[in-house]
Design goal:
CATH superfamily: Metal-dependent hydrolases
Structural class: alpha/beta
Largest sheet: 8 strands, parallel
Shape: globular
Helix content: 25-40%
CATH topology: TIM Barrel
Length: 369
């Protein structure tokens, strides 16, 4: 059993950053269920209180994070009340102000409506969390922007929520999770991408999710380190599905952001897909270009968790293959592997490359003035 407690002391706040930053991955948390009450009907409020969530994750047992990092939170991010990520003043003091964040993208992971077996409840929760983001976070703090949570496994309901929320300027992306019930390139999900393209906002795929399937291709892992390492494999499967099924060919203006899955694996995946494409081109006549061309054009990645190779040149090579214009800074606040913008990026980046990653690229992928 994991016991969540507040730390005995506080770690020092990072030194103030000198460069303007856009943070692509901040995780807000509700102080309590009561915060969602104004945005749920009596039916769904009573449902949540009496029955609760039913995600597709029945085989998993126990809490997914070690006791040393309950909820994957930083030790110094615990407020006097509630969970890390639930206190706006603490977020300002620990992240927005000292890190010079001009815009931060909120990615609510739980509750969010992602992956619940009751599709109607999932749709109600997604809508409630979207309204909660506006009321609790983006309107009180103009530096914060929201992601549209959607019931991904119910595409018609997801499209309705996208169309409802997209006109609101505080929403800058659509949030999905990498572990979907079926490979996300399959056609039943295409209405979501069509709606995203029509709205002109990207789909952000954040690691985790409730597919009901194990993290690995060979069953459930024994250790936390296996699960964390397998995020890269999950992202590879996701990206392969999106490319090979023809999503980017069908929706040529679609933008996708891969969040918290690393990026060192992307060049090797591109090489392998191109190699196989030459041998199986007849199987996928709907693809008019090499797989790596679709990846380079349509996919952005966040830096966190920042790759840390023994030789920094290896990291810069991978970043160069992806394109420095396709990389977005992310901190992952308030989680334990938070990346401080003053320390996380490779020291050998040029000033132009650093500016692209820290704030300029965000203008291209998000609706920024």
């Amino acid at each position: 059993m994991n016991v969540i407690t507040s730390p005995l002391g506080r770690m020092p706040v990072p030194a103030r950053a000198t460069m303007t930053m856009v943070d692509g991955d901040i995780h807000p948390k509700n102080l309590s269920d009561e915060e969602l009450r104004p945005f749920l009907s009596d039916r769904w409020w009573n449902y949540m209180r009496t029955l609760g969530n039913r995600p597709r994750h029945g085989h998993a047992s126990g809490f997914p994070y070690p006791k040393s990092t309950p909820g994957a939170y930083r030790r110094d991010a615990w407020p006097e009340q509630g969970l890390p990520g639930s206190d706006l003043e603490m977020m300002r003091a620990q992240l927005l102000d000292p890190c010079n964040i001009s815009m931060g993208v909120l990615n609510p992971l739980s509750p969010s409506g992602h992956g619940d077996r009751n599709h109607d409840f999932a749709a109600a929760m997604s809508s409630a969390v979207n309204e909660w983001q506006l009321a609790r976070w983006t309107r009180p703090e103009r530096r914060l922007k929201a992601s549209i949570c959607i019931p991904f496994e119910d595409p018609p309901a997801a499209v309705a929520e996208i169309e409802r929320c997209a006109p609101e300027a505080d929403f800058v992306q659509i949030l999905a999770l990498t572990r979907t019930f079926e490979p996300p390139g399959q056609r039943r999900y295409w209405p979501i991408y069509e709606a995203a393209q029509a709205a002109g906002i990207p789909v952000g795929f954040h690691v985790f999710g409730y597919s009901g399937a194990p993290m690995t291709g060979a069953g459930w892992p024994s250790f936390y380190i296996e699960e964390v390492a397998a995020h890269a494999a999950g992202c590879q499967a996701l990206l392969t599905s999106m490319v090979i099924e023809g999503v980017f060919e069908q929706f040529p203006r679609l933008k996708m952001v891969l969040i918290e899955g690393g990026f060192g694996w992307i060049p090797a995946l591109g090489w392998r897909l191109d190699h196989m494409f030459e041998r199986f081109r007849s199987e996928v006549p709907h693809l008019r270009r090499r797989p790596s061309d679709y990846i380079r054009e349509h996919v952005w990645v966040t830096t966190q968790p920042m790759e840390e190779a023994p030789n920094q040149a290896f990291v810069l090579d991978a970043m160069g293959w992806i394109g420095f214009e396709k990389i977005l800074f992310a901190s992952d606040y308030p989680h334990w592997d938070f990346d401080d913008p003053a320390l996380a990026l490779p020291s050998r980046l040029t000033q132009e490359q650093r500016e692209m990653i820290c704030f300029r690229n965000a203008r291209d992928v998000y609706r920024l003035g």
